[in-house]
Design goal:
about 350 residues; Lipocalin; Glucose Permease (Domain IIA); 2 domains; 21 strands
Length: about 350
């Protein structure tokens, strides 16, 4: 009996030491996450966490440790709440967990799954190497599109990478009215790659279960992420981690934003690249292979530069913003009209 008690006591002490040692392991480090290939820097001090993300959206956040999980909180630039509960692997080299962004009325404006792997993200130096042309398939059926907004336009809302301010650094595609009200504008994967995230997105007043933001990392340019906004997925198989092929149908453009079928005019696309200086947005048209851009030439475009307002031109014709909302739209034409 004496030896049995000693064995049980030794077993319990050993188990406790193992668990305690694991819980003492530091979560601190840089993690590459599945949202725009951004890096999250976590610093642990006891059971408390501070973290930063390479994003102009979030300010520095805080959190607490509970076993293998971290509870994180931060505010966005718009004073919305970012919350996330991340569960780590035992070796602390990866994590996964849900996140939400809620506005002042506690309404969810964005939600999805956050995945991270310890270590820096793959980077590409666009300053020394230029922007590679790697997209082999357009992401929509161009014959249904009437006009496209320019990179750095004053349409929509401010969307930047933090290196610039008060301008829209993505492209809106406006379908012809006939296709818009029938909700049959196709969205394809422009590359062969992996879906990094599928996020519940907003389009006006309502989110809706079918309104998704889809982020895809190309197999041959892993520092880049293509983000397609406002997509109704074609099936439940369009999920985080899915391998997709160039030209594969992902879904249809979400052209209304509530149950009353109040229609919007456009859906949009952005291209992020992780650089040595941080994440940067680049024009979608600069990443198209020539054979893809030729379809735009057949619709009246002359050069890729038709779809971009240069930084110098935008700075000389500045916009005015109230938060993300444009107060003034500048004097430069925001659109390229297709023939």
């Amino acid at each position: 009996m004496k030896y049995t008690k000693i064995f049980i006591l030794s077993f319990l002490i050993g188990s406790c030491l193992s668990a305690c040692e694991r819980n003492k392991e530091d979560f601190s480090g840089i993690y590459c996450i599945n949202i725009q290939n951004m890096e999250m820097n976590i610093i642990q001090n006891g059971n408390n966490i501070t973290f930063t993300m390479q994003s102009q959206i979030l300010v520095d956040g805080t959190g607490t440790v509970n076993g293998d999980t971290l509870r994180l909180h931060a505010f966005t630039q718009e004073a919305e709440d970012f919350i996330s509960l991340l569960t780590f692997s035992k070796d602390r080299k990866s994590f996964s967990g849900p996140f939400q962004i809620r506005d002042a009325t506690d309404k969810i404006t964005l939600e999805g799954i956050l995945l991270g792997t310890k270590g820096e993200c793959i980077k590409y130096d666009i300053v020394s190497k230029g922007i590679p042309k790697f997209i082999t398939k357009d992401f929509t059926q161009l014959s249904k599109i009437e006009r496209i907004s320019k990179f750095r336009s004053g349409f929509g809302h401010s969307f930047t990478d933090g290196s610039e301010s008060c301008r829209n650094m993505k492209h809106y595609y406006n379908p012809y009215l006939t296709y818009r009200i029938n909700d049959n504008v196709e969205i394809y994967s422009p590359v062969t790659g992996t879906i990094l995230s599928v996020v519940n997105d907003g389009h006006g007043a309502s989110i809706g279960l079918k309104n998704k933001q889809i982020q895809i990392r190309p197999d041959d340019q892993k520092a880049f992420v293509i983000v397609i906004f406002h997509c109704d997925p074609v099936s439940s198989s369009i999920i985080t981690g899915k391998k997709v092929q160039e030209g594969e149908l992902l879904g249809y453009a979400r052209m209304y934003y509530d149950d009353l079928k109040q229609y919007v005019t456009s859906f949009d696309i952005a291209v992020w690249v992780t650089t040595p200086l941080g994440p940067r947005l680049v024009p979608y048209f600069d990443t198209l292979k020539d054979e893809v851009f030729n379809s735009y030439i057949s619709r009246g475009a002359l050069t890729r530069q038709d779809f971009t307002i240069t930084k110098e031109s935008r700075d000389a014709d500045p916009l005015t913003c109230d938060g993300e909302s444009f107060v003034t739209n500048g004097t430069i034409n925001n659109w390229v009209d297709l023939n």
